[in-house]
């Protein structure tokens, strides 16, 4: 077993804040989808699938936005709900598109958007290749609809013109950064020997910005926070997102597949350029296990990562980014820093 220190913990943590109730966010999301579907009946099936795809998530992004907004004294519950719903809808859009890129047909243990439209086409007697094309095309279109809805929700959340302009800029930056990160991820999959710095840059673009930076900054902007606070939240969010993704990589290999939600060898089989793959490449180790049975492949990968020191190095790297996030939170008001320190611990201090 690795002797590396667990992910960063603070020695003295104040009493845990109450977790915000997010039902108003879910209600705002469903209202938007229902109104959009009613306004364009021809797109109702697509919106129905978007709504289904948005169910069952952890609501991490809404929780971050709501926490930042309330800790900074924000009191506009309607704007808060709309903006938070927008980020959850953006997350749904990216998941739908991710499944297309990864050629996946399930999400959270169920048929995803592409699979649902493919099944409907097959039931109508379409050829398998035609049904698959229809399913994938419908998923791309549904994801596009969700991106547009997300931008509308976030950018139009506030009645104040200046605040709306700040929110619109934040969500636009999130979409652009994530698209760039997704492209880099796809390009890395075709590259030999992934470079660690490039993988970390991909994590920051693909995960940090829309999952952490943007919701935190949007919540603060809604509360009227100044540019210095938004900049501190951006720094914290970038570091936190990388730590979160590295932890996911480790859990994906060493965690329980039933809890993690995917096979412990799926990343390696799909050619994913993860931090673990980059650390193995630095050590001259080829992690390919594509011709091995699943259980043997998982055991082989765990042994390679453990014995090479890549697991310990990844844990240390995640801890360093966690410490950087904590340090950045020193630049925000006390109440917000206290609330986010607890969230940071919950999101990154997971059993490895």
Main sheet properties? 2 strands, antiparallel
- SSE series: HHHHEEHHHHHHHHHHH
In what order do the strands lie side by side in the largest sheet? 1-2
CATH homologous superfamily name of the domain at 1-14 and 187-352?
Farnesyl Diphosphate Synthase
Output the radius of gyration. 21 Å
Assign the structural class, choosing from mainly alpha, mainly beta, alpha/beta, alpha+beta, or little secondary structure. mainly alpha
Count every beta strand, where a strand is a DSSP E run of 2 or more residues.
Answer: 2
Strand % is: under 5%
Q: CATH class of the domain at 1-14 and 187-352, please?
A: Mainly Alpha
Cα-to-Cα separation, first versus last residue: 10 Å
Tell me, rounded to a whole number, the average pLDDT: 89
Helix content: over 70%
Enter the CATH topology name of the domain at 1-14 and 187-352. Farnesyl Diphosphate Synthase
CATH architecture of the domain at 1-14 and 187-352: Orthogonal Bundle
3D shape: flat
Number of helices: 15
- Pick out the low-confidence regions: 1-16
What does this molecule look like?
By secondary structure, the chain is mostly helical. The protein has a domain at 1-14 and 187-352: Farnesyl Diphosphate Synthase (Orthogonal Bundle), CATH 1.10.600.10. It is built from 15 helices and 2 strands. Strand 1 and strand 2 form a beta hairpin. Helix 6 runs antiparallel to helix 7 (161-189).
């Amino acid at each position: 077993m690795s002797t590396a220190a667990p992910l960063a913990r603070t020695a003295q943590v104040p009493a845990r804040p109450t977790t915000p109730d997010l039902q108003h966010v879910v209600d705002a999301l469903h209202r938007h989808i229902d109104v959009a579907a009613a306004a364009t009946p021809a797109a109702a099936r697509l919106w129905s699938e978007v709504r289904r795809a948005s169910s069952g998530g952890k609501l991490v992004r809404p929780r971050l936005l709501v926490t930042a907004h309330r800790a900074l004294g924000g009191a506009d519950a309607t704007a808060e709900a709309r903006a938070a719903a927008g980020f959850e809808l953006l997350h749904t859009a990216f998941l739908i598109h991710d499944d297309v890129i990864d050629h996946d047909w399930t999400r959270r243990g169920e048929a995803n958007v592409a699979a649902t439209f493919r099944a409907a086409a097959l039931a109508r007697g379409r050829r398998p290749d035609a049904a698959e094309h229809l399913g994938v095309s419908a998923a791309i279109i549904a994801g596009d609809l969700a991106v547009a809805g997300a931008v509308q929700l976030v950018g139009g959340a506030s009645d104040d013109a200046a605040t709306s302009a700040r929110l619109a800029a934040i969500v636009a930056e999130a979409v652009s950064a994530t698209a760039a990160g997704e492209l880099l991820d796809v390009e890395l999959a075709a590259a030999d020997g992934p470079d660690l710095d490039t993988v970390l840059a991909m994590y920051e673009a693909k995960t940090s910005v829309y999952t952490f930076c943007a919701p935190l900054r949007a919540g603060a902007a809604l509360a009227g926070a100044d540019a210095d606070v938004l900049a501190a939240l951006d720094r914290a969010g970038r570091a936190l997102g990388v730590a979160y993704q590295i932890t996911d990589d480790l859990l994906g290999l060493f965690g329980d597949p039933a809890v993690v939600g995917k096979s412990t060898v799926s990343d390696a089989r799909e050619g994913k350029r993860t931090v673990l793959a980059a650390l193995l490449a630095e050590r001259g180790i080829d992690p390919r296990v594509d011709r091995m049975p699943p259980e043997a492949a998982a055991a082989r990968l765990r042994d390679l990562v453990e014995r090479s020191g890549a697991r310990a190095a990844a844990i240390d790297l995640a801890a360093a980014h966690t410490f950087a996030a904590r340090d950045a939170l020193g630049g925000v008001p006390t109440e917000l820093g206290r609330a986010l320190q607890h969230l940071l611990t919950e999101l990154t201090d997971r059993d490895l």
